[in-house]
What we know:
By secondary structure, the protein is an alpha/beta fold.
Amino acid sequence: MSTPEDTPPTPETLMGGTAASPAPRAAWDGLLPDQLARAYLGDRRSERRWRNFFRLSWLLLVMAIAYAVFATRAHTAPGGPHTALIEVRGEIAAGAEASAENLVPGIKSAFEDAGARAIVLRINSPGGSPVQAGIINDEIRRLKKLHNKKVYAVVEETCASGAYYIAVAADEIYADKASVVGSIGVLMDSFGATGLMEKLGVERRLLTAGENKGIGDPFSPLLPKQRAFIQAMLDQIHGQFIAVVKEGRGARLKETPEMFSGLFWNGEQALKLGLIDHFGNLDYVAREVVKAEEVIDYTPKENVAERLAKRFGASIGAGVVKALQGSVTVR
Length: 331
């Protein structure tokens, strides 16, 4: 006896009845290639969009690098009468934008360019390394002896400490009435964690060859004789700073007991003390003093790779070491 399972399908049973169940599967099988095609085309479009995105990104990167290279070199080309500009911005430190290594080549180019009528140092800096500031100051004074060109310092917001160390190399200093000027002093900052370590039961094990090799270590006590040694060193650097200021400003300086104490003043007060000479900005100095309104920037610019390296952590290690060990700062 035959069963329904043994009975072969007929056209009638395919069109209706229980045997018609394979028909929907056939329809689904027919739709599958279409779905695959749409998915494939979608993937291709997505791949094409990403490929175009990366091509555009590379193009923009190449254009940015080319702009950085040519913008850096453009200012070195000799031109007609103009005012040469050197930007002194941010912290003055080795490896920073306002370092001697970065600024001195631009200063030298400005002095050597026959078209540059004078050099303007546009300053907006809280200070920094006495070594870097000293190198820049020395180089400006050396070049002034070799070339018959005036140097003017123009203060924007801040010209404090090491920045003022650089400014006094100029023939005249200009500032705004509200600019911050001065802070002629020296500091060395660090911290001490010995009390906290005692509370936590942490012992510092520092092995040295030389009893003062660990001087300034924040995790070890600072002995009185070590403190006196550091203070004597800071006082000596402070004396060097004061001597440079007096030499640069000469008789224009109206000394007061607070002048070299590390205090700072606004532009109006600084003018009365002889720390600056006049009020004025870059445009005023170029137009009215130098008589060359065209301003050409001689400040060496970092290329894109250098800027990205610093931004994404190349200087983090140096910052950590500075925070832990302390450093001498003209500030």
